[in-house]
Amino acid sequence: MNTPLRYRHIDSPVGPLLLVADEDALRVIEFDNPRHPYKRSPEWQPGDNAVIREAARQLAQYFRGERREFDLPLAPQGTDFQRTVWHTLADIPYGETISYAELARRVDKPTATRAVGAANGRNPLPIVLPCHRVIGADGSLTGFGGGLPTKHYLLTLEGALSGDDLFG
After folding, report:
1. Rounded Cα gap, residues 114 and 5, in angstroms
2. pLDDT tens-place string over residues 71-92
3. Is the pTM of this model over 0.85?
4. Is 131 one of the catalytic residues?
5. Of these residues, 98, 103, 104, 131, which one is catalytic?
6. Cβ atoms of residues 22 and 6 within 8 Å
7. Pick from 81, 80, 98: which is nearest to 89 by CA?
């Protein structure tokens, strides 16, 4: 890798978020206690760059209810299948949810619901690639790398849930 990966923690209403980027693109957004921690690398250096500053700015706007879509260069690292699933997440509109089965249909793998769910769970750029908008077929909130309370918070922020809804 030619340019170093920089990382910085930012505060958010869902707890600290770790942002990792090179000079070209955002690579990772990680919750404080992730279900699947992103593998640390010696190439990671503490600090800032323009991509991280812009991601922090846009995330702050999102949490204030001022931003519904992100406009950031992204470079999630994964298999071709995982990247297909992750990029498809970006097409789920703000304030809407879909099921895992619907996500599988959208990636043209209608019988691969479990594989799609696994890829969704390994999304290295949550919030920006909105894996929180994928829910159970019965409308229940299911596993989320940031925890179900965080998923509930994000969906409530977006108006997909009322503050009174319970998560399953």
Report:
1. 32
2. 999 999 999 999 999 999 999 9
3. yes
4. yes
5. 131
6. yes
7. 98
